[in-house]
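We emphasize that the prediction below concerns an isolated chain of 421 residues; any contacts that depend on oligomerization or on bound cofactors are therefore not represented. The input was used exactly as deposited, without trimming of termini.
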Amino acid sequence: MNRWFRLASTVVAMVMIANLQYSWTLFVKPLMAAHQWKLSDVQWAFSLFIACQTWFMPCSGWLIDKMGPRIFMTIAGALCGIGWASMSGANTLTALYAFYAMAGIGASLVYCGSMGVALKWFPDKRGLAAGITSAAFGSGTALFIPIIASIVKSSDYRTAFLYTGIGQGLLIVCAAQFLRNPLPGEVSAGPAMAQKKVRLHNEEFSAGQMLSTPHFYIMYFMMLVMGIGGLMVTANINPLSSSYMIGATALTVALSMNPIANGASRLFWGWASDRLGRERSMVIAFLIQSAALLSVPSLAHGSDTAFVVCLALVFFSWGEIYVLFPSLVTDLFGSRNASTNYGFLYSTKGVAAILGGGLAALLFEKLGSWDVIFYGGAVLALISALMAFGLSKMPLPKKPRAVEFAAAGVSAAAHEDAARG
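Result of the prediction step, given as a token string:
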């Protein structure tokens, strides 16, 4: 089966889990109104979802590397569908947290399996393939935001949870049936001209070997602090618009434009990184992110147009982290354990969600303003740009000889079994 068809299947699966994160803001105010919950109470559910999605990733990656993506993404479809649909009947915070966490575990398997397929089947176009797959997650919800908003308005948020949950779960299960890992030697990077400026390692690192290198911890910190700004806006755009006195029409436009900008970011920077190199692309994108975050408190107060434009810039310079980092970790540490290794790096999103979701909402309740939070995010993005420049000057990581990590090594025979499954 053509590898582009497999990539298309990952796109379908990623679009289906996009709503779990990016349409959440539509449900925040209805949940608060229906149950008299505080903003921070509701937003801790978002933080828990992201934590489950990300902190389960190393385990997800190991399972998928070892046994193949098909079976686990089938299970993921059931978890995503049941978890999201069940929030329609959640009448306590405990139930809301539990069902959203279930959907988060399912999303972890979908995201990890889809990204692993892209990274392994396209060593010659790694940035582009990762960008296409990640863009499906970043912008897929743009297709559904108007529909979900209409259902919430015409019926209620419970109906929106139920219908979208059932549909998403079924389509993920269908897409999973077309996925597998490549057999050893089935694909190769080849003499791709696009990779002239991409640093590639000819060694395969297990997770334990990767964790013993300084390169991993530099990337971990960079991805962590870069994740805060975008996740803060994602989780709080609705209450943010109220604080900045933005009209309902502008909010709807922003909700539709932001995932488009997010997806365009992943496509563009994935393509650019195949030509400029991962670290160079990071430096440029992170500097733009710093400026974009500064522009929100400076320009967006009371201006519908500036609000839409500034937030679109934030997302365009934020979404690329979910393309550049998986591509870079595979370049530096090999593709054999790509799902496992990126799973460790992706766990930063859980910490960033706590800081950008629940904690940011709590700070707003204490301070009465979002401005300081945006300023802090801009400083962190600037620090990340400087660290990316430093990383580009470091030599390729050295593989430790005696480091083994039981949950990371995958033999060729296991790969053959995984490919069949």
